[in-house]
Amino acid sequence: MPRQPRKFPSSGFETIDPSQRVEEERLRLYGSQDYYPMRIGQVVQGRYQVVAKLGYGTSSTVWLSRHLGDDKFWALKVHVNTLKHNQELDVYRHINAAAITAEHPGREYVRQCHDSFQLKGPHGEHQVFVMTPLGMSLRTLQDMQNDGVFQSTLVTRALDQILLGLDFLREAHVTHTGHEQDLHSDNLLVALTDDSVLSTVEDNEMHNPSARKRAGDGFVHVSHCLLGGAGPLTICDLGQARIGSEHRGNAMPTPYRAPEVILGMPWGNAVDVWSVGLLAWDLLHRESLFHVYDRESEERNDAHHLAAMTALLGPPPPEFLSRSRETSRYWDESGQWHGPVALPHGTKLESLASTLVGEDGELFLGFCQCLLSWLPEERLTSIQAYFHPWLRGKGA
């Protein structure tokens, strides 16, 4: 028998000062009429009762709901009404239609969209995804560690799951990386093993309702942070993923760009493997590999970035240099650097590794070097990286 909606408090919560910007209002391109004015306790599509806000981003807000039919919790990802074409929905449909999806062991490590529908708002239509609620991000978990780094056993376990998930996407001809997004610890979420943390969030919203700010005819709610989760990692945020084997144009956030992207070469799912190499480093070290931010211009920033790569990885091979006219601005025909900025000194990959020592450290460096190659085709594929000796054990 269908569950009756709960009646949530309409008072007793902290009211935030109207002059203070909160949550999505702080985003650079925020438009108040772009977001759906969701209310706690609202029933959507006649079956999902919204019980709490879980998060927000530039293109959506995420809400915890309980299905009135089967009493199950679901996350509702409610997109802004300015999103006229939802690339993420195309990707989910493509994945579900791919022949390999049902059997591939990496499927469970990629977030799935269980349903979608249109929600009519006061200023337009909003696409809604129905998804399994997930726990904290890998970034949040990392911030809770001593010195902000993980033990190597936790990192290898995480990378196992990430690489299987990426191989699932690769087999479906999907590249996770998009224009302003790559694979990083913010879009890797820990799965929940039971609903107790979700029930707690719902009960807290009932007895100690979250703070909110009145905005127009509705409210901007403060999100709950789901700190629970002991399940596997889940690759999220497929909104900028690309379908197909080869792409052109800009991609990836600036400090994480693969060299072929910086230089305007065609790129494919090898950029995801590049991201895994940087992620592996970041999980074990307090300092990222590339500190290349130059506010003067994007052109100068690219020069610093490529200089840092050259110092870390050695000069690029002739085959790489021949793939773009842009390379002549930075290297001569033999790969010697002559770019507009100096090469940084003392930054060989081996000299920067500090967390792991002995054979384990050597295996880790070998793992990174196999993923951070100049030539995309020389990088390990996701499944080859999964079987690397550092992940499979020293005797592998």
Automatic annotation (TrEMBL):
SMART domains per the UniProt record, alphabetical: S_TKc
Protein kinase domain span: 48-391
GO cellular component: nucleus
GO biological process entries: regulation of RNA splicing
Residue positions binding ATP: K77
Keyword Mitochondrion applies: no
One Pfam family of this chain: Pkinase
Molecular function GO terms recorded: ATP binding; protein serine/threonine kinase activity
The entry's keywords: ATP-binding, Kinase, Nucleotide-binding, Serine/threonine-protein kinase, Transferase
Coiled coil, from the record: none
Protein name listed in UniProt: Protein kinase-like protein
Species this chain originates from: Ophiocordyceps sinensis (strain Co18 / CGMCC 3.14243) (Yarsagumba caterpillar fungus)
Taxonomic placement: Eukaryota, Fungi, Dikarya, Ascomycota, Pezizomycotina
